[in-house]
């Protein structure tokens, strides 16, 4: 069964790229058509087939099926066709995939840790076949992208504590616990068991990325475990996190106290401008941004009063940057900067076309989801994309290869607190040596010393150093 099993192992399968010698050595004769083709031709063939699909979700399913068959070809496609495929495996298509995950579910791609496993989380983690895990992305599914509570349909390691989404609870294809969300002490005890089990199983330096947690839990989790675990949360280290980083950088450049630079940044939430008179009712993470000003109820009124140079949207609420808001920004800025960062596309604060049209082409625009080039007044504008997908994988790699044991805000501006000493002479070369490279490895006969009976002992040349359980 060695050859047959090899073809069904996505980590090792090369499909028609197995050489004649490999087919003889590893019992593949007759299990493949006679032709041998390389990775490049496999890539060309798959992309040609993928482009025949008209529906993005079909492309997503095809890509996930490929990942289950041939992992290296999957990542090679992504590396070589990132502009075309990122909108398929990430925003905006992944949002639809999460919403319909119960219907398109084929094979699990991560771990599902539900309340049924309370008291047994360490045992569950040990069921994952890889042992040298360095990065974990975990969600409880309460705030997926800008789509809200999607329960067990969040795609990475899922902490399933139930869902308050009635549509999912009544969906016969829903794959998660059919109960309301656990809250309070029950929720925090379960998360505590998970965090302890992760460190016990994978060690002090395993990086845990909290993903798509609702704010009321996200801030508490980051505050509680930020001093005991290597953790970060890219969602709340957006929003007020973006504000804090801007204030931090302004402080570094101007030498002013950060309390002073925070006053240059204003927040607007669902109740209007965040001001001092609201201090008693504000969530803790907003209080540092409650400046002295008369109450203002709407974003438009706030823009007109504050006259900002940059408008950043992380609300998860679509269409909040209206024509009037963009026109107001353009009335007192020659080049207004507008960043509509919420995902997916339906939740974007405004579209690229709207921003360019309403500013008469003067806007500097970027969004969380991709937009096609825009024609306006005879000019072609190419919208920028400012998405954490371009930042946090690199941050994660830096944290892993530097050997740091805690994440601090300064790390989002510059790498520091490394324990991997001495510093490598060539940082780029060292980083590349730690990265996964999606090319086929050559299988050697002596890497299968026990023959058919010991397939589970298989090793391969140049096995990747980093195994990552992650979303998308």
Automatic annotation (TrEMBL):
**GO MF, one annotated term:** malate dehydrogenase (decarboxylating) (NADP+) activity
Report keywords, A-Z: Metal-binding
Q: Which cofactor does it need?
A: Mg(2+); Mn(2+)
Protein name, please?
A: Malic enzyme
Binding of a divalent metal cation occurs at 211-212, 235
> Which GO cellular component does the record give, naming just one?
chloroplast
Cited Pfam families: malic (PF00390), Malic_M (PF03949)
Instruction: Tell me the ranges covered by the Malic enzyme NAD-binding domain, including all copies.
Output: 221-432
Q: What is the lineage of its organism?
A: Eukaryota, Viridiplantae, Streptophyta, Embryophyta, Tracheophyta
- Similarity-based family: Belongs to the malic enzymes family.
Which amino acid positions bind (S)-malate, per UniProt? 143, 343, 387
- Name all Malic enzyme N-terminal domain ranges: 67-226
Where is coiled-coil annotated?
none
Signal peptide range: none
- What Gene3D superfamilies does this protein map onto? Malic enzyme, N-terminal domain (3.40.50.10380), NAD(P)-binding Rossmann-like Domain (3.40.50.720)
User: Which superkingdom?
Assistant: Eukaryota
């Amino acid at each position: 069964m060695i050859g047959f099993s090899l073809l069904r192992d996505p980590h090792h399968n090369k499909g028609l790229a197995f050489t004649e010698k490999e087919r003889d050595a590893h019992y593949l004769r007759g299990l493949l058509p006679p032709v041998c083709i390389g990775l490049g031709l496999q890539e060309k063939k798959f992309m040609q087939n993928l482009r025949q699909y008209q529906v993005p979700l079909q492309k997503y399913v095809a890509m996930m099926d490929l990942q289950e068959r041939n992992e290296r070809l999957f990542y090679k496609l992504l590396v070589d066709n990132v502009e075309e495929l990122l909108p398929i495996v990430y925003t905006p298509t992944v949002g639809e995939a999460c919403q319909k995950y119960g219907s398109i579910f084929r094979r699990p791609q991560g771990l599902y840790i539900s309340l049924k496993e309370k008291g047994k989380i360490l045992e569950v983690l040990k069921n994952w076949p890889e042992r040298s895990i360095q990065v974990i992305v975990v969600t409880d599914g309460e705030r997926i992208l800008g789509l809200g509570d999607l329960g067990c349909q969040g795609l990475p390691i899922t902490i399933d504590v139930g869902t308050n989404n009635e549509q999912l609870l009544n969906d016969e294809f829903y794959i998660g616990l059919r109960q309301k969300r656990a809250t309070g002490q029950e929720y925090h005890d379960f998360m505590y068991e998970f965090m302890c089990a992760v460190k016990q199983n994978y060690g002090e330096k395993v990086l845990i990325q909290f993903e798509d947690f609702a704010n009321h839990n996200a801030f508490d989790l980051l505050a509680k475990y930020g001093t005991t675990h290597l953790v970060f949360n890219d969602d709340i280290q957006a929003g007020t996190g973006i504000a804090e980083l801007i204030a931090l950088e302004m402080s570094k450049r101007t030498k002013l106290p950060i309390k002073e630079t925070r006053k240059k940044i204003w927040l607007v939430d669902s109740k209007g401008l965040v001001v001092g008179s609201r201090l008693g009712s504000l969530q803790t993470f907003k209080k540092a941004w409650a400046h002295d000003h008369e109450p203002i109820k709407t974003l438009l009124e706030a823009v007109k009063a504050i006259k900002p140079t940059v408008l950043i949207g992380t609300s998860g609420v679509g269409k909040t940057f209206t024509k009037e808001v963009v026109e107001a920004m353009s009335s007192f800025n020659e080049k207004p900067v507008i960043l509509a960062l919420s995902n997916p596309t339906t939740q974007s604060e405004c579209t690229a076309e709207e921003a360019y049209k309403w500013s008469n082409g003067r806007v500097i625009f970027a969004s969380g989801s991709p937009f096609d080039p825009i024609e306006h007044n005879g000019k072609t504008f190419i919208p920028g994309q400012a998405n954490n997908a371009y930042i946090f994988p690199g941050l994660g790699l830096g944290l892993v290869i530097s050997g740091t044991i805690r994440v601090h805000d300064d790390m989002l501006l510059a790498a520091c607190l490394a324990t991997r000493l001495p510093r490598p002479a060539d940082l780029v070369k060292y980083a590349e040596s730690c990265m996964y490279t999606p090319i086929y490895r050559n299988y050697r006969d002596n890497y299968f010393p026990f023959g058919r009976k010991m397939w589970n002992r298989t090793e391969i040349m140049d096995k990747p150093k980093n195994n990552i359980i992650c979303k998308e």
